[in-house]
Amino acid sequence: MMNTQPKTTYFCLSNPKKTNIYSRVYLAEPEARFLNKFGQLGAMINLHLSLSKESTMKEQTARMAEISNWTQKVIDFLSDTYYDPLKLTVNVEKDFEDLLSKINNFLNHEKARNPKLFEEYLTDMDIDIIIIKDKDVHFSQIGDIKTYLIKDGKIAELVGEKNKNQSKKFLNVISGSLDNDNVLFFASAAFFDYFSLEKITEIIESNPLIKISSKLEQLLGSESKKVSLQNLIISTNEETPVAEIVKEEKEELKEKIVKTKKEIKKPEPIIKEPSPVIASEISSPETEEEIETEKEIDEEEIITPQEEEKILIDEEEVLAEIKPKPITKPMKTQIKLPTIAWKFNPESFKRKALIGVLIVLAILFIGSLFTIGKKEITVSKVKQQDQTIEALKTKESDLAVAEVYKNKETINKILDEMNELIKKLPQKTQEQKDIYNSYRNKYAEKLNSLYQLAVIDNPLLLTDLTQINKDIQADSMTNLGNNFYILNSSNNYIYSFDYNKKETQLVNNTSVNTGLLKRFIPLDNDVLIGWDKSQAIATFNAIDKKLSSLKLEINHLSKIQDLGVFNNKLYTLDPESNQIYKYSKTLDGFAKEESWIQDQNITISDAVAMTIDSSIYVAKKTGQIFKFYKNKQVEFNLDEIKPALSMENEKTKIFANADTKYLYLLDGATKRLIILSKDGKLVKQFTSDKFDDLKDFIISKAEDKAWLLNGTKIYELPIK
Fold this sequence. Notes:
This protein is 33% helix and 28% strand. By secondary structure, it is of the alpha+beta class. The protein has a 5-stranded antiparallel sheet, covered by helices on one side. Strands 2-3-4-5-8 form a 5-stranded antiparallel sheet. It has a 5-stranded mixed sheet with strand order 11-33-32-31-30. The longest helix has 59 residues, at 346-404. The radius of gyration is 38 Å and the shape is elongated.
């Protein structure tokens, strides 16, 4: 079946700083199956802005970002609503009426949800929504957007002042069918301040659609940076294929170059009277001849200023046909010649001048071909971007279906595909950045929903330790009841934060016979235990505030990565030995070590953290978590977690005890606290932009709060 879909294009300039108008044109480019089923959706949006009261550039930028994001939200709503993949049958006219009803409700909801936008930022809006299906066109407008029909060189207005919709709602639908060689032209009212109806008709009828935008921008010249204008064109005229247009441009270029070559006049030689030569300066006839020959060659290669200006003018004329942007003239290089007598050879000069002209023409021709090639590449990039956007829309539709059936595997696959497509979107212009951010935000929202990730904008700040010491370094944190203890590993200073009183104090600044500690955890209700950089064990008594070393019998070269305590027994994680060692409590320390893992096939040489309830959980660099019970590995099926875990050595902490319902994982490198069931199911994730240096955490006894050490700050999160 032959595709009778009309061809479409649009032109849009938006300079809100100069005009207080923000303009956008949206023209969907759906894949064939959607185009055949639904047709093509278009929208023209003009937002009239109130005079900005913001005093800083940052505030103005934030305001424009909000307006841009809201405009994209309107476009997304129109596209997502109209292109419904679950719709079994399509009645374009009825579906369009439904779309208008829904956009009216949407705008009412937005006015209630975001009154600041409508009351402070916007004074008015013009919106035209258009559906093109085969040769049938349906459109509805609010505000002031002009509509004309062009045929056989004549232009007629379709929607006059009498029929103009004065309401802020879409009330009327205008429908019709285009004949062959018809053009439907929509434009903002400001467009006609720069182009008359006759000029518009001439431009549309004498240029293929692909060249109209560049032609309009060329005619506007420097004004294009000062205006907000838009139009949308629907045409049933026969179009010349793009490849043929480029071919014709190349042929025209060749003809212009040939013509330019013929029109260049051969410069008349300028014979200069030779300067007198002093006999004493000439040592021999050979020297004179050598000097004269060198001077003659240099002078013959010079192109006169008139000739150079003629070539530059012709170059601008030729390139203007291919690329409407102004071309900077190359710098003129002047060569200063020494004052010396020389002989002139007219015939040699003519040959050299002609060769110079031909070289310039050849360079001009190659440069022009490059301009055409660059134009073809630009068109290709725009087409590639449009194809990427349409592919993303298809993925969004597929995702909606997968969510209905709650197929997590399919949802995950589609999200991965969307992520790869989003990476291909360009981000050079502001509009491209807006499109990229819109899809990136939608992707993140879906991903977060699927993987239970809550983004906390403003977590509660309990304290900043720099209030008591501006040079403080905080490396780890644990608690004994309502007292939090923070360790500075560079000097063994220990600070206490009273959660009830919200007070912080230094509780230890001495370190006798103890190396610099790396981390500590509770040993019992009054004592903390940790290890130092020399692999010795030390304890801190919270009652007498003393830090002291503790005896530990080690029979191997130890490299402690983490500690755990359970039933008065101490367990050390030693990745380099691929082992967990157990130590029983004695009166003055701990007894001789025992190798706890019995299975020689277990690999924990890449382990980064450990915790114990009645089982031992070991987090590995690979993103895995091993679970052991009674010396043996047991089943622990960790859910897929996204974003992927990092598990960096010093930024990974894991916690559980016999009283906790869940297993808690801090992945500091990816700024997350992750809650898991004790058999590996993902329960929740928490993150915040405030988390830029997560180091350690504490979970409340009721498991309803988490306290996180971020740099020198302690934050509180509700996690239930």
